Amino acid sequence: MGESILPGALPSAGTMTEDYVKVIYKSHEWEGRGPTTNELAATLGVAASSVSGNLRKLERDGYIDYEPYGRSALTAEGRALALRMVRRHRLIETWLVEHHGYSWSDVHEEADRLEHAVSERLLGLLDRELGHPERDPHGDPIPRPDGSLAPQTGLRLGEVAAGASGRVVRVHDSDPALLRYLDTLSIRVGTRLRVVERHDFAGSLTLALLGPAGEETGATELATVAAAAIRVEVDPA
Q1: Which CATH number fits domain 1-151: 3.90.1010.10, 1.10.10.10, 1.10.565.10, 3.40.640.10?
Q2: Is the pTM of this model over 0.85?
């Protein structure tokens, strides 16, 4: 494992900066683009006017490139800080689920609070105790100390063709209600399923849940808005 390329002491960046760069990073990670001001405001639970001012500050501090009324992109310094925060967040989520009985639906907000306070020494201990995990309970890749990541695979479930089958490898963690709903459908990271039928005009999918040998163990309907939060590694044709 190489020398860390992630930034040094975190407290100097400030909680606001850490939160913003993490949200911008996750938007690029999931959507392939930076968030708009309104998207940032909705995610962070603040007024859009506050977001605009904070983005200008982050640009002055060298963390982002920002175009008013446009989308934000991380600089190299901003990406390094974001990776540091994402590593903290996802290791803490994994630790809380594996060692303290948290569910995947209630761990996100707890990790949001703890990620700003945990020391690098404690984080290293957690990483070793967990066996240096590559992914968190939602299937998100955990950045390594050198900033590298496990390969990101999978299509959004809504993009999978009818008749194709595969394994759920990742679920977006931002909406606890969605995660609880998926639990009721027995859809989690590792679940195998097949897209039986696409109902594009109705905005839904018919899914078959599959057992270890490929046998059908259940069926369900899922709205495409929920399917957009799920990534599936599709079986070879």
Answers
A1: 1.10.10.10
A2: yes
